[in-house]
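Appendix B, Record 12. Input sequence as logged:
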Amino acid sequence: MSELTIHNRTLIGWKEYCHLPDLGIDKIIAKVDTGAYTSCLHATEIKPFVERGQKQVRFITHPVQFNDAIELECSAPIVDHRIVRSSNGLHEKRYVIETTLHLGEQIFTTELSLTNRSDLNFRMLLGRGLLRGHFVIDVRKSFYQDKPIPTQR
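Logged structural output:
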């Protein structure tokens, strides 16, 4: 499927499938959240460590909505540790990682903050820092983009 574009920007819906190959996540449904600047990913058991002099973080994620039986252990370099205001208005200090994200035919290196989203409907949010300049959002529809093709392991 070729991408739908408006003014050279890819058209996406209010939720889309994403692929995070560096983390081993073949597909995850992400909610578009223009109220958030930084994108975020559901993570539990978040533990920092140092490997070859580089600060990293190891965590567990459950990439499938409403299914904690599917569990992935991931690790990634830490790029920041910042205070983020969550949707309930509370401030939380979160680790921020940098990883590759595929959305439709677009591929980005992006920042994701890590937080426990167990009680929320979506395991990932796409913030406006990623969206700006690349996408136009149709809030009436979801899944404009094709599902990611699973990576061969």
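The chain is about 5% helix and 55% strand.
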